[in-house]
Amino acid sequence: MNINNEKESNDYELELEIEEVFEQIDNEHREGNIWDPEAQIEGAGADYIEEVINEMELPEKSKQNPNKSSLILETISETGSIPVFFQNPSDSFESFDSKLVELNKIIATNSPGVFKGKELSAIHQIVGHGMWTVTPPVELSSGQIVARLDEINNGIETMIPDTRLFPTNDKRFKRSIVFVGSGSKSILDQFSKEIKSFLKPRKYSECLGGDENSDHASYFLLVSITPSEMSRILGIDSNDPSIKKFVDQINNKNEALRSTQTS
After folding, report:
1. How far apart, in Å, do the first and last CA atoms of the chain sit?
2. pLDDT for 1-54, tens place per residue?
C-alpha cells in the first residue's frame, strides 16, 4: 500500500467536503434559509464586478408599538413602491423636511425619463428588491467637485443617525447602491465613478435625468440596509415575526426575479 498516495487522497476528499459545506452555507444564505439580520439581502441582478457597512451601532430608540410597526411593514409589502427608511435625528423638523423636499425634487426631475440608467420604478431589475435608506441630497457645481470628493473619503452620511457608508471586504455586508441624480452629465458621471471606486458595492446602478448640459448637478444615493438596521429604525426587535415575514416577502420577490432573468 502506498501510504503517501492514500494520505493525499484523504486530504483531497476532505478539501472537497469542506468546499461542499461552504457552498451549502452560501446557497442557504442566498435562498434565505439562514436568518442573519445583520447581513445584506442577496437581491437579484448581477453583482457589481469590482465588488458598506458601518459597524457602529445605531442609537437606542424607544420601543414603539410592535403591532403598529407590523401594520406599517404589511402595508408597504402590499405596494409596488420602494421601501425607504430613515430617521430625524433631532426634535426640529426644519432641516429634515428641507432634505425631503430636495430628494423629491431630484426624483421629480427624473420622472419624465432618464438619460442614463433605469428609472427608479424599474431599478429592481438591476439591483433587486430590498430595504433602503438614502443619503442627504447634495447640490454642487463644477467648482465644488474637488472639495466634495475629499469629503467622501471620510465616509458618506446617510439619513440614519450616526450611520456613515464605508467600504468593506466582507460580501455579506456589501451594500447595493443606486446613484440618483439630475443635471450635469459630466459632474454626475465623475461622482458616480468615485462612489463606485470608494464603496465597491455589491450591486450598483444609476438613475440620471434632468438637463444633462446644465452647469450644476444634484444627487443622492439609494442605499440598501439590513433587517437589523430596519428593525432599529422601527423600534422593534430584529427577530420580531413581522420583520422576518417582510424579509421573506422580499426574498420571494428576488427569487421570482432571478427566475425570469435566467429563463
Report:
1. 51
2. 444 555 455 554 555 454 554 455 455 554 555 677 778 777 665 565 554 434
Using CA atoms, how far apart are residues 16 and 28, in angstroms rounded to an integer? Answer: 18
- Residue 230 has which C-alpha cell? 430596519
Planar angle of CA 123, 129, 133, nearest 5 degrees: 85
- 138-161 burial, b at 16+ Cβ within 10 Å, e below that, comes to bebeeeebeeeeeeeeebbbbbbb
Residues listed for the chain? 263
Q: Please write the tens of the pLDDT for every residue from 193-219.
A: 989 999 999 999 999 999 989 999 999
**Exposed/middle/buried for residue 190 (C-beta within 10 Å: 0-12, 13-18, 19+):** middle
H/E/C letters for each residue in the chain? CCHHHHHHHHHHHHHHHHHHHHHHHHHHHHHCCCCCCCCCCCCCCCCCCCCCCCCCCCCCCCCCCHHHHHHHHHHHHCCCCCCECCCCCCCCCHHHHHHHHHHHHHHHHHCCCEEEECCHHHCHHHHCCCCEEECCCEEEEHHHHHHHHHHHCCCEECCCCCCEECCCCCHHHCCCEEEEEEECHHHHHHHHHHHHHHHCCCCEEEEEECCCCCCEEEEEEEEECCHHHHHHHHCCCCCCHHHHHHHHHHHHHHHHHHHHHHC
* Residue whose C-alpha cell is 417582510: 246
Asked if 216 and 188 touch (Cβ cutoff 8 Å), the reply is no
